[in-house]
Write a sequence for this structure.
């Protein structure tokens, strides 16, 4: 069974983390405050998110079950605020599910640090929960710009002060 971390954030964010991201070079202790900062920067006054790290087999099952697409994907986001029956609590944002092996492969393929690629994928999923999408080229650009902005914010905060 995967370890679970429950954490109340500084702006009434509740983030559940299931699974392990340590092998990607990113600790939960660094990841959660960054997600909280992302939510705050996006204007979310509060929110509840479940973030789950899975292996390829589990992600293939979920991807095929819920998107009708074959194979794996790096991230799935299930909003609790969209669709025919949104959650009655507007703070219940949804679930972000990450295939860590897919993210590791992408990092290698793109020549990026695995932790940075993991942050990019998590940001992508969280932004979906906040209503971002990439069905059109304009939407895709807006979403990519938001991802990059949040990655820069993380990098700036992670840099030691000179």
């Amino acid at each position: 069974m995967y370890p679970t971390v429950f954490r109340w954030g500084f702006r009434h964010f509740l983030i559940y983390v299931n699974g392990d991201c340590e092998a990607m070079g990113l600790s939960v202790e660094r990841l959660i405050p960054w997600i909280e900062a992302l939510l705050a920067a996006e204007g979310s006054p509060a929110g509840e998110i479940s973030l789950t790290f899975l292996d390829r087999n589990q992600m293939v099952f979920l991807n095929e079950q819920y998107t009708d697409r074959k194979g794996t994907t790096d991230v799935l986001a299930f909003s609790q605020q969209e669709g025919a029956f949104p959650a009655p609590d507007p703070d219940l944002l949804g679930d972000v599910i990450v295939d860590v092996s897919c993210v590791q492969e992408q990092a290698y393929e793109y020549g990026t640090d695995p932790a940075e690629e993991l942050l990019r994928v998590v940001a992508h999923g969280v932004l979906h929960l906040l209503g971002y999408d990439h069905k059109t080229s304009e939407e895709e650009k807006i979403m990519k710009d938001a991802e990059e902005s949040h990655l820069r914010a993380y990098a700036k905060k992670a840099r030691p002060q000179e």
Q: What stands out?
A: The CA atoms of residues 117 and 154 lie 12 Å apart.
